[in-house]
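For practice. Supply one:
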Amino acid sequence: MIYVNTVIKLLAGLGESNTFIRVCWISPNSEELFVINITNSKKMELPYLMKMEDLKNDLKDSKAEKVEYEQDFHIINPSNEYLEKYAKKLNDKWNLIKDTVYVEPDIYFSAERMKLFQNIKNKTGAGYNVLYDLLKRYWFYGKCINGLLPNYFDSGAEGEVREYKTRPGRKGKNIKILDDKDFVNFQKAVEKFRIAEKTDIIETHQRMCEHYYPDSYYRKRGKLSPLIDETKAPSEKQFRYWYNKNYSVRERKGHSLGQRRMKKDFRALLGSNSMYIEGPGYLYQIDSTPADISLLAIDNKTPIGRPILFIVKDVFSRKVVGFNASVNHASWVEGAMMALENAVTDKVEFCKKYGVDIDPEEWDCYHLPRNIVADRGEMKSKYPNGLVGIGVDIANTPSYRPDLKGVIEQHFHITNKTIRDFFHNYGAILKDKREPGDSKPDDTAAITLDTFNIFMIEHIIAFNKMSLPREFVVSPEMFKEHVKLTPNGLWEWGTSKNLLHERPKNLIHYTLLPKMTAKVTRFGLELKANTKLCYTCKEGEEVGWFVSESIEGNKEIEVSYDPRDCSVILIRLKTGKLLYCSLTEKFNEYRGLSLDDAKAIFEFRKQEYKGLSNNNKQAKADRRAMVKPHIKADIEAKKAAKASETDKPIGKREARVQEANSRKRTDAFTNQWPEQPHEVVNKVSEIVEKAESNTQLPSENKLSEFLRGKHKEKNRSLHA
């Protein structure tokens, strides 16, 4: 299937370069589509019309192929610092074209586009060249707002702070040049007066000058009053510029109105009067709730309490597109991230993990939405911000306003009621507060987490087949086309709007997972997480990252990791290429462990070594104390032997032989055997005497000479 944002590589002949195109828009009847050439970011082009049949024929004839390709990944998924730095520029550019980009397909035709441009120019004064450049960048980067960001990655002196010898800008009577001390005073004044006392910016500047920039003090009516010299204090304009630069519009609203009123009257919600839910994939809602059931552990006897249930639902069709059930506390990694990942996962493969075989059309949801609305819980963190880079906007509703997510909130009521009815006698929590005599849910619990997941799969499939709520408003278009009023029917009918889009799976994982810095060493990529775990990949070994201890000139690199399994990490190169890195052979035993488990092991080792440090020193001291007297005795014996030496000492070899013979008798195993009874010894003596009478045995000296002769003959034969 071909969707919006699908990237296709058009294969060229010998000596020619391949061309990459991105799908921008698909007609409702899926016969025509507009595509844009994304081969060269330095020379962007306008979209052009193609026939769907021609493109499918090229794919069928192997003249083209679907690929996972993204140009300038650092533009669509920049760092938080870069995004914050140029947020104002981005918003200004987006405000110029935001009401135009959704006028599809008119925006793709030259004549209609010029009419839209003329309206914008009349309102804002923006030139045609500016508007063309913004539209091209927006389409080029997959209808991603971040595509409008300025590309300063390969220019300028990054990280260097410009130092001024004279104050920049127009010169007035106040010529003070600001330094770090002034910025610290600015921050203190904002926190003390603007935020704490809710003073306006003019009064905040006045109070700042009185507290931090008095030239001196003088006494008036018996009271000390600060004497202010404007030429020695920052001007109001300088203070206002710094304030607007360092605080967002949202933060400045909070300073003046208070956080509670700001969240109520200036809440972050998607859309406006001109923006409405157009079809499936335009808006997903996500939220969590404790399920009304107590579960058992895998041993089928230990209660583990209520699971936390995350559900992702499409607002247009009311279809459940993903879920996650976990016994961990609600968090981004353990809940929201898993639910979103499930929403873009092939459900056939997902259900197979639990032994449930379904047909693809029973749960055909594996796409990214345009927008996601959540509450101020797990999604209110830095991790979901990366979704903007893959074309998904995030909005958080204010606190205490569940009515703003009515679709998902109502679904929780339906799901928990079904759970209570289905598992009435098997651990269901029937009341919020138990009364005396009521059974405990833990006592009647009989369901494991895997069984609960199977139930949720079947429940969701059944729900998507059932009729919509009776209060659902049927549009005239639905009436004309006799749309089946079920989530599946509405989803199937609405997909002709082509609002669903897709991204590579590894890009989705990189975006969703938390980030960490890793150091490039000869031992691999070493995580900075108090673990010293090291990772490697085939490409890194071939290029020589670990020999040079750097990747693309950097000693450190940002990595995505899954806290639940430290076996593999994901890194992104400057080109945007994503690579999987696995644990080195040294840490093979850590495969399958969570990052917390790995940290616990390393902490255990650290504490053990720390505790054994004194033992090591004591063991060394004991060793020296036990051996030192014997060494001293040998030294004294050596001196005595040299003093009484009369005969010429024997050679080293002869002395070594004598020492070996002596040790043979001393070290023989027979010394450890029990002594034989005297009767046996006497019998042996009699046998020996009889043998001596029959055979003349050589004396001890003769026997020794005989053995030495045999030894010399053996040596001569070896050296011959």
User: Anything to note?
Assistant: The longest strand covers residues 19-26. Residues 595-643 form the longest helix (49 residues). The radius of gyration is 40 Å. Residues 269-275, 695-700 have pLDDT under 50 and may be disordered.
